[in-house]
Amino acid sequence: MKRIGKPVFFIVFVIILALAYTSIFGVYGENGDFKITYIKGISDIRWGIDINGGVEAVFAPDGKDATDDEMESVKAILELRLVAQNVTDYEIYPDYTNDRITIRFPWKSDEKDYDPDTAISELSATASLTFKGGSDQNGEVLLEGKDVKKAYSNYQTGSDGTHEHVVVLELNDEGRTKFADATSKYLNQTISIWMDDECISAPTVNAVISDGTAIISGSFDATSAAKLANTINAGALPFGLKVESYSTISPSLGNSALTAMGYAAIAAMCLIFLFMLIMYRLPGFIAFIALLGQMAISIMAISGYFPVFPSFTMTIPGIAGLILSIGMGVDANIITAERIKDELWTGKTLDGCIRNGTKGSFSAIFDGNITVIIVAIILILVFGPANIFSMIFGVSTTGLIYAFGYTLLVGVIANFIMGVGASRLMLKSISGWKLLRNKRLYGGKKAS
Fold first, then answer.
1. CATH number of the domain at 7-44+254-442, out of 1.20.1640.10, 1.10.10.10, 3.40.50.720, 3.40.640.10?
2. Helix, strand, or coil (residue 10)
3. Alpha-carbon gap, residue 27 to 391, rounded angstroms
4. Which of 97, 101, 181, 205 is the most buried (most CB within 10 A)?
5. Distance of alpha carbon 160 from its chain centroid, rounded?
């Protein structure tokens, strides 16, 4: 067996402890009376409606009768704003007959006053649609939503003779002049389209467009082309939204139950630690450390620990996915520890037993985890926010299933990193210490 340096155990151990601590408690500072968040922890997780409650509001066009297309545009921009905040636990129900849209969404993670007026005003503020030079948010503003007359999906014959779905923009007189100048300046470059702070498309300018009609082509299907058109139209709506009514939604679980779940999780981890230590001794101890690392990575992917991965809305099904992935992490370490124990009882050397045990267990762990990863990815792709299946299963159902698939996927990936990678590094490193080469410490029947 290729020896791993003795300090590797301490290095990996310290890294895991640091990740576990910072992912749970976060890192914060103060600037006068303001709290500064350097690293987000569990307290920054945005809990779903079923855990923390939320807001229900009914919106209506302010001072006009809206068409069905305009109602679809309003629905598209509300969804875009929620998804941009990584809120998947939401429900939107448009009523085309009475020009009403009912929406339910959870409170923010840092909400203190639970003021529905503030939450609703942030969501229903007039959308800002801009066309900017380049693909950066700070690029030059070339056009605004008021310059767009309308947008709609269509299809055209591509260069290879096949039909492709496109989005057509029709500009008003002022927009036509602006767009002619913009496409002349950014010929063969990118003009990005932004809704508030979210880039919704970044097409390349292939020709100077002076007739006021632009075509956005790319890898569109009928659904994605229609969605982009509706989103663009939302930014160009000539009316705002007024709130017909609103109310707060009580959680189905509640904070007291969430606290009880926290204590139950701590008790479960203690029992797992004792079980692994008694049954598998030193490999069990290392497996528990790796399990802490797996939990830390899972929490990081939910809380927004890394700025590139925004916080995730945690729901009861999401917690179920997390628990299932932890169970798979325990199972992976048990398989490895059992294989090592079996090898030890054949009388082979300690190094040979660890090598054969880790190698022999990998295929079983890989097969079991990769199938779960495939299922989790399918759940995310099929039941994610604003996909074609939402029309079949409903927004509420898809959001809940998406949360389960997301946490399950993250947990299983974390299991590969910690339960398979880090735990084996630590085990091979610690087995190089002379004081810890007794086979009894690894499940064997006698000392080497």
1. 1.20.1640.10
2. helix
3. 41
4. 101
5. 37
Q: How many CB atoms lie within 10 A of CB 344?
A: 23
Question: One-letter amino acid identity for 407?
Answer: T
User: In the structure encoding, which two tokens stand for residue 283, read together?
Assistant: 């490999």
The pLDDT tens digits for 298-350 are 999 988 888 766 677 888 888 999 999 999 999 999 999 999 988 888 888 88
Tell me which residue has tokens 């099929």: 382
**DSSP H stretches of helix in 37-142:** 49-52, 68-84, 116-124
Q: Which two tokens stand for residue 446?
A: 């006698």
> Contact, 92 vs 101, CB < 8 A?
yes
The 8 Å CB, 24+ separation contacts for 259-267 are: 261/319
Taking the domain 54-126+241-249, which CATH number applies? Answer: 3.30.70.3400
| More confident call, 268 vs 109 | 268
Characterize the bridge pairing of strands 213-217 and 163-171.
Answer: antiparallel
Dist. CA 375–CA 238, nearest whole Å: 44
Task: Return the sign of the alpha-carbon dihedral for residues 86, 91, 95, 96.
Answer: positive
The per-residue pLDDT for range 45-84, each reduced to its tens digit, is 888 888 888 888 998 888 778 888 888 878 877 877 777 6
Closest CA to 107 of 116, 98, 117: 116
Q: How far apart are CA 346 and CA 168, in angstroms?
A: 72
User: Residue 293 is encoded by which pair of tokens?
Assistant: 């690392």
Residues 6 or more apart whose CB falls under 8 angstroms from that of 39 comprise 22, 26, 27, 305
Nearest CA to 69 out of 90, 99, 93, 92 is that of 99
- Provide the token pair at 45: 């997780």
Structure-token match 């301490």, residue found: 10
Domain ranges for the chain: 7-44+254-442, 54-126+241-249, 129-235
Check if the beta carbon of residue 428 is closer than 8 Å to that of residue 4: yes
pLDDT tens per residue across span 116-127: 777 787 677 666
- Rounded Cα distance between 147 and 173, Å, is 8
Report the alpha-carbon distance of residue 319 to residue 201 in Å, rounded.
34
Nearest to 123 by CA among 170, 213, 55: 55
